[in-house]
Amino acid sequence: MTRSARAVPVLMYHHISTTPGMFTVSLGHFAAQMAHLARSGYTTIGSTQLAAYLAGEPLPKKSVMLTFDDGYLDNWVHAHPVLQAHGLTALCFLVTSWIGEGPMRARSGPKLPPLLNHRDGEVAIENGDADRTILRWSEIDVMRDGGTFEFHSHTHSHVRWDQVSTNADDKCAGLARDLIAARTTLKARLGAASDHLCWPQGYYDDDYRRVASQAGFRHFYTCETGSNYPGNDDGAGRSISRLEVRDRSALWIASRLWVHTRPAISRAYLKIKR
Ligand SMILES: [Zn+2]
């Protein structure tokens, strides 16, 4: 390795689907985006590599991280095979109380399950039918074994404790219980739970950071736009900025990565945007 990455963009996806909707990248665009990454010599990095990079270790110059929030069924049906075809890897943030039991669902053919759009999926989850839109443990196991996905915490319930609590003590207690339940479930089902946490709806405050760091988390994935550089660990952990991927072509992702792998250009670009 002659030169290390000067900035590492972390891309944020939710749905990869043939069903159009909010927070959805079409399968065609996603396949083109991943083909571009592979063709252009990008290395997709994992959580351990990102943590080491932020602590000062070098990474290949063209490094990028792919992340998927919430653990949707379409990640199994569409994202996993595309990643596997290109030898790319990603992180998926699971809401552990939503995940179902049962056999793997078909990824093609007549038994392919209907893929709900974001709004219909939200309704299914509210109605206690998360299985229609969320991954099962059997699918998670195959995605892990296939080497495409790592799985990390997005809390147990996805509840916004700042919105449902009447005071700060209740908020902190609710979040603490939520994080411990998520950690216990991941440990029981996957054999391990990492110190990487994705904030539900990107929300956090000082209490959230304190409670999460007491629960053993050190890497916090936000919805704040930007790239990532070594340093800036404030002792209670490190916030990770992300780039929300739009339903756009490979050319669009190429331009985003060009900007956000260059610290000065990335910072200037974000300043102008604000
Ligand atoms: Zn989420």
From TrEMBL:
GO terms, molecular function: hydrolase activity, acting on carbon-nitrogen (but not peptide) bonds
SUPFAM superfamilies: Glycoside hydrolase/deacetylase
Pfam family, one: Polysacc_deac_1
One GO-annotated biological process of the protein: carbohydrate metabolic process
Domain (NodB homology) ranges: 62-274
InterPro entries according to UniProt: Glyco_hydro/deAcase_b/a-brl, NODB_dom, Polysacch_Deacetylase
Keyword Lipid metabolism set for record: no
PANTHER family with a match to the protein in the record: PTHR34216, XYLANASE_CHITIN DEACETYLASE
Protein name: NodB homology domain-containing protein
